[in-house]
Amino acid sequence: MSVTKTRTSSFSRNFASVNSSQIPGLKHGPNGTMFISSGIPDLDKILGGGFSLGSLVMVMEDAEAPHHMLLLRNFMSQGLVHNQPLLYASPSKDPRQFLGTLPSPAVPKDDKSSHRDPDQEKGLRIAWQYKKYFGENQHSFDSQGGKHEFCNEFDLRKPLERQFLSGKRIDCISIQDSPNLVTLNDCCATFLSQFPRSDGSISSVGRIAIQSFCAPQCEFSNMEWDMLSFVRSLKGMVRSSNAVAFVTFPPNLLSPSSCKRWQHMADTLLSVKAILDEDKELEKLLTGYQDMVGLLNVQKVARLNTQVPVILEATTLSIKLKKRRFMVLECLNQAPIDGSSGSSYGTTGSCSVSSKSGTLDF
């Protein structure tokens, strides 16, 4: 008796990577795209889920203020919290010292209530038949007692605990004294070889963070064609691996033609800009201007495995520090239409109303 073989269509979904959803810090997206978190909840929502696996993210720095470091630190800390291997390249002489400035994940309010005194819990009126369900959620906690969240909220005033830095696969490279980019290219190739995409399954993901590429202290800063070739090579290597490369660069140190080529090479392109304190015109125009530390502009969003363009609600957002320690992104509100500060990107907005009601108010 012959056995009929089920015919699979070429357009059928590949279920080989279904188990990858159990990997901390990995999330399924549309069209078979996998996302890792940027370390900023609002930015993940803006980008449609986070950074696409196999994409090149580039951030254009501002010479007036190091706001790009906020994005870089959160990106690196999020990977270490999820136990993802990290390759960090910096123009400083000792890049490993930078790891001491990474922020620590904040303790959620729900977790604070879980550390109550057992004597206090006696007064809680919980039915006995529901107590057996408390043990079912133990698998969602890691060894430190925290939940495996896709994106954490990081406390910029609290340094990352040593437990996240010890025993991890962290490679730090100094590109200050490198005469060319051969060493950096070989290190990236060796690092990305750990995360091949050819087999279809995902066992782990990696992150590459390159700070201030083409900085003046690097000897190759005047080799624009060599740097462009490296960016093109890095994009090709990342595309065929389960990793994300995050590169920041100062555009003012490049020629206009090279800067345009770099922007074209990026899958996700962001830029940051400082806000001057004495800008009185902008202060009158925007609500919550006093709480802003900078502006974030989303110039390009990665769209892998699809040709559908991305239509963002807003491309320019304000960077604010909630309680001077938590980074949030908010849509710009024009004053004096709404006297309150702008709402976070993740919150639902509504039409603002004036204090005096009228027939045209809505």
UniProtKB/TrEMBL annotation:
Residues 108-121 have a biased composition (Basic and acidic residues). It is found in: Cytoplasm; Nucleus. Keywords: Cytoplasm, Nucleus, tRNA processing. Residues 98-121, 341-362 are annotated as: Disordered. One of its GO terms (biological process) is tRNA wobble uridine modification. Residues 341-355 have a biased composition (Low complexity). This is Elongator complex protein 4. It comes from Prunus dulcis.
